[in-house]
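Progress note, sequence design subtask.
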């Protein structure tokens, strides 16, 4: 019975073992089958060839198994680190979309340079070292820490205070090179002199001798000190560089100083120390040297002295000037009132008066009703007596003596004086709107001229012409050139001036170019006034070169005149449909009114179709020598084209018109 029980127990244990073996076998078979169906393999090729020999693959993240060059995953994204000796590691990321054959190329690990510059002397200057590899600057300083790809290179060192250094390098991957390079110094010279000579020279605190001196020095920086008795110590910094191994210094030593304190009575004069203007107060001066000190003020005797101060001396000097007076005798040609420096001194006449006045600028004024006041500035002197004989003239006689306009002023004609200069009259070939009769002529002027501010008005002309009586300020129009010239002769006669025009009865037959009587402006003068006066260069129009007419520039055919003018300016409105009073528009840059418009103007020149001589410069050009017609200049209230407003524009005038007037001119002397 016992035997049977044991047999049965053994059978039960065997059955259990068989069952366990079966289960284990099923698990193993299931695992292998799962591996075969679920695991993915990736083969990694590592480059370059030098890296593949020592390449190592290592899983970093995800379910991954690595064996040699193969990576096994159960799916999902994994990361593998790829490394090799002397190469930079690379992180490889693999996911379901990655190919089964992968390639990773590793970058070589660069070499590292750790280089230090050394020198046997002046090591503190090594910070200015420049480092170059194959001619390229890679760093500045006493040392260099630099990474670079493996290879052969030429390392160069440059320092302004040392000779150049270089070294050939052959670098391997991941190599660390730690070297020291010694820079060599060089020999230089420093030539040193001072004015005055004989100063003791110290270099970095050590005495080297007296100037002039030449020193042998190595390249570098040196502190220089120059000392000489009686002079201030001089300090400088010497620099001997490779590019300039020899230097020369010339120093001007400054004398030791003293102090001079200057005060003055009276104040407000000019104080000079060594011929330089100074303010009163304390001044630092070189000791043991003579200095010139002067002080002067108008009305006082000047002070002048030479002063020498010792080293460190402080000296006060108070300069007191004595008044200087002069005798002045003043007399006049008639009894009048005398004013001196604004103070009324009473009546004075032919007998005169004696005055004692300060020796400075004194203002003298003598006046009498009906006579021009005479003002003079004099400077009396104690060295000599001064005598003044003052002549009073009536305003008429004074103007005549000065050659200034007289009767014209009474008519209300104001004349301005001009000094014309050389220019080219006419227009250049490329000027827009140019006409064939605008010949370019070089002209110049030798005489100043007077020109009326405005065109002659109807009121002014009526004083000459008994045929009309008018108080109108509009310009006189419907007047012939001959009538305008006769008006000029009449005005000259009123002022006692020689007539410019020669006449036979009421007909002008010629002119006297040397006469200073009234006349019409020449075309050259008119055009100079219109486009060159007070201008750096000639302009196209009176107002400048711009084709857009400025506001208030003149009276032209514009929007105001379009109802009776077929051709008119579109973008301008002067508010006048017809002729306007003179000076209704602003004056041009030289003070003249209506040169550009209102009415056109007769000028002196005869009109001819003959070509002028353009090979010479015409001085005081009066135009063509003969011709039955005359030139008309300037635009007018019927001018509706921009080309007609140009300064060079010229028309032939044959008879009186309601668009033509004139202004007057004459030579100043």
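Output:
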């Amino acid at each position: 019975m016992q035997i049977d029980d044991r047999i049965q127990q053994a059978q039960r244990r065997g059955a259990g073992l068989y069952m366990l073996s079966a289960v284990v076998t099923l698990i193993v078979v299931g695992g292998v089958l799962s591996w075969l169906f679920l695991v993915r393999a990736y083969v990694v090729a590592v480059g370059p060839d030098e890296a593949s020999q020592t390449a190592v693959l290592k899983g970093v993240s995800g379910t991954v198994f690595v064996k040699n060059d193969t990576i096994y995953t159960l799916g999902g994204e994994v990361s593998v680190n790829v490394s090799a000796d002397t190469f930079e590691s690379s992180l490889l990321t693999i996911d379901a979309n990655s190919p089964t054959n992968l390639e990773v190329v590793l970058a070589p690990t660069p070499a590292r340079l750790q280089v230090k510059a050394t020198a046997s002397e002046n090591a503190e200057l090594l910070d200015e070292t420049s480092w170059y590899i194959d001619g390229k600057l890679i760093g500045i300083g006493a040392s260099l820490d630099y990474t670079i790809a493996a290879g052969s290179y030429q390392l160069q060192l440059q320092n302004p205070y040392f000779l150049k250094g270089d070294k050939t390098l052959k670098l391997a991957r991941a190599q660390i090179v730690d070297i020291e390079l010694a820079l060599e110094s060089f020999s230089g010279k420093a030539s040193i002199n001072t004015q005055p000579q004989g100063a003791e020279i110290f270099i970095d605190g050590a005495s080297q001798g007296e100037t002039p001196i030449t020193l042998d020095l190595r390249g570098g920086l040196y502190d220089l000190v120059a000392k000489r008795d009686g002079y201030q110590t001089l300090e400088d910094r010497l620099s001997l560089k490779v590019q300039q191994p020899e230097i020369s210094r010339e120093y001007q030593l400054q004398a030791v100083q003293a102090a001079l304190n200057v005060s003055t009575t009276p104040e407000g004069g000019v104080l000079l120390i060594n011929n330089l203007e100074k303010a009163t107060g304390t001044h630092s001066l070189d000791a043991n040297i003579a200095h010139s000190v002067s002080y002067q003020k108008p009305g006082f005797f000047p002070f002048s002295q030479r002063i020498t101060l010792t080293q460190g001396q402080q000296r006060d000097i108070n300069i007191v000037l004595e008044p200087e007076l002069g005798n002045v005798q003043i007399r006049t040609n008639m009894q009048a009132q005398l004013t001196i420096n604004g103070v009324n001194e009473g009546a004075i006449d032919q007998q005169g008066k004696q005055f004692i006045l300060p020796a400075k600028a004194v203002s003298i004024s003598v006046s009498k009703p009906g006579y021009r006041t005479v003002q003079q500035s004099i400077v009396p002197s104690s060295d000599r007596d001064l005598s003044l004989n003052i002549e009073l003239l009536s305003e008429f006689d004074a103007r005549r003596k000065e050659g200034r306009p007289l009767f014209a002023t009474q008519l209300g004609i104001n004349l301005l004086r001009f000094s014309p200069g050389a220019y080219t009259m006419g227009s250049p070939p490329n000027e827009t709107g140019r006409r064939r009769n605008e010949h370019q002529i070089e002209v110049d002027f030798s005489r100043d001229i007077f020109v009326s501010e405005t065109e002659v008005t109807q009121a002014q002309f009526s004083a000459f012409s008994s045929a009309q009586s008018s108080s109108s300020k509009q310009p006189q129009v419907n007047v012939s050139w001959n009538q305008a010239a006769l008006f000029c002769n009449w005005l000259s006669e009123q002022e006692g001036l020689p007539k410019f025009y020669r006449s036979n009865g009421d007909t002008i037959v010629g002119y006297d170019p040397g006469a200073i009587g009234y006349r019409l402006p020449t075309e050259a003068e008119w055009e100079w006034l219109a486009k060159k006066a007070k201008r750096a260069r000639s302009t196209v129009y009176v107002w400048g070169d711009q084709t857009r007419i400025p506001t208030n520039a003149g009276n032209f055919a514009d929007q105001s005149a379009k109802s009776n003018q077929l051709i008119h300016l579109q973008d301008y409105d002067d508010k006048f449909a017809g002729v306007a009073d003179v000076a209704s528009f602003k004056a041009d840059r030289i003070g003249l009114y209506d040169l550009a418009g209102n009415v056109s103007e007769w000028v002196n020149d005869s009109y001819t179709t003959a070509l002028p001589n353009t090979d010479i410069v015409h001085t005081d050009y009066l135009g063509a020598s003969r011709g039955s017609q005359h030139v008309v200049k300037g635009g007018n209230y019927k001018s509706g084209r921009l080309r007609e407003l140009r300064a060079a524009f010229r028309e032939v005038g044959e008879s009186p018109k309601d668009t033509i007037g004139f202004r007057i001119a004459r030579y100043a002397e």
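DSSP finds seven helices and 47 strands in the chain. Work on this subtask will continue into the next period as scheduled.
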